[in-house]
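Self-study notes.
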Amino acid sequence: FAKPILYYWLVSTSYKIFGVNLTSARLTSAFFGSLTIGLLYLVSRRWFDGRTAFYSIMILPSTFLYFQIARWATTDIVMNFFILLGLYYFILAYQNDFKSKLNIYLFYLSMALGFMIKGPPAIIIPALVAAIFLVVTRRLRFLGQLRIGQGLLILGGVIIPWFAMMVFLHGDEFTSHIVGAEIEGRLVH
């Protein structure tokens, strides 16, 4: 229980379908690494133009670190996908003056799924990017339209059941790990 469960469920699904081997262990990361390239095209096209989007998807997979991490059986690339997906929905909401509730809700759902892959960075990164963007562009009036209360309900609805189950199954061992190793060990130190 060092990390949330979603990534491990995805790898287990790969094992069930393709057998337990190195290829199926790495398939989840490779799959989401590929999806991230397509998503980067959509983000770049929406934010900039087709030419920038094309160059973006040519550069990303050719960078050594991205290529390597997308082939490893780690949570990083999958969390990266959900962070970018959250930012994509934020961009869609922003470009429609936050009139579409669906894009706002999908922004929060993407962060929640990212949290269920690796934890708090999947919420902290897109939330900070969105907040800083609104501050820098002097559009703080949109903060109220982000439906933060409803967003917290979406985040809680996805995240809390896993925590509750871990506390139920593992009790003090789980809470000591979360408070000790994860919160105190990482955040404080």
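Second protein, same conventions, sequence then structure:
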Amino acid sequence: YLTSKHVDLANSNLDDYYEVADRRSNTTVQVVLSVGAVLIGIGFLLFIACNWSAISSYSKFFIIFIGVIAFYFAGWKTEAVLPKTSRALYYLGAFLFGSGIFLIGQTFHLGGDVHNAFLFWALGIFPLAVYLKDQAVMTATIFFIFLNSTQLLLVGEYTYFVLIAIPSLYLVNHVVFQKAKWIFVCISGLFVFFTHCSFIFFEVNQFFNVLLLFVLGLVIYFRPFADYKQSMKLVGQLMFGGYGIVLTFPFIWERIFSNGTSGVLAITFAVLFASLILWLVREGSLFSIFLLCCVIFRFYTDISYDFLPKSLFFIVGGLILVVFGYWFERSRRGVA
């Protein structure tokens, strides 16, 4: 005999099942519609490209201009009835807007740097990201700003706009996106990249560049803000982990010290760094297991590649990775 408690429990399990199934269905629909929007956008651009010579310059401009407005308007009109389709139409408009920047520049021979085109693309879709509160569009905005900031290294021009963009993006994530973890990590990645490139641009010694970002990563990891505790810990791990591995190489210490001294300092740092990682592993940090694997594999590669037969080198290296993967899996599942 089923009691009311058993019936409630069964209904609760069914509700959970249908909720998960509905969520998966919505995700599938969104992916299908998004891919379809991209394909339509590519086809639209190919149509213009194939009929390039037959279409006048101003006609090309108006086709793209009207197309962007039409897709945004269609997305706005279908928001209430077909929200997934509406989102795909917005994506299509954003894709066409960015592609149109490059096509119009080529059509009217405007010239200019391709990095600035990515900046205009980011500025154009940023209001859409805020309006929709869409993490995908916001991620694209950050990515295009990142592409714009690469001119620090590729062109040798300093992008002062990024100095304003980074704190603005943090503010928008805090207020509009309700402290989204993924957006915070993406903005932080842009911040680290821009800071690193800025030091290179201003010819700061690379040893101090790497050391400063390593220390900053430790500070972020051990002193995170309460509202961003998990996000900052992840960013901090990535920073001190990546730059810490770089500091285990003697060549970075040679920027300051002599060859003999740099080797000793690199080994000393590697021992201290490995000790820190082992301490974090004992504290229950799963990501630290991955870092420890990277450190061991880095020294294994450095020491054994020139001495072992190549087949044995890869076999032993693979075994090391498998053992650490096994350890990581057991730790993640809480298996003793």
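Instructor comment on the second fold: Residues 130 and 172 are 8 Å apart (CA to CA).
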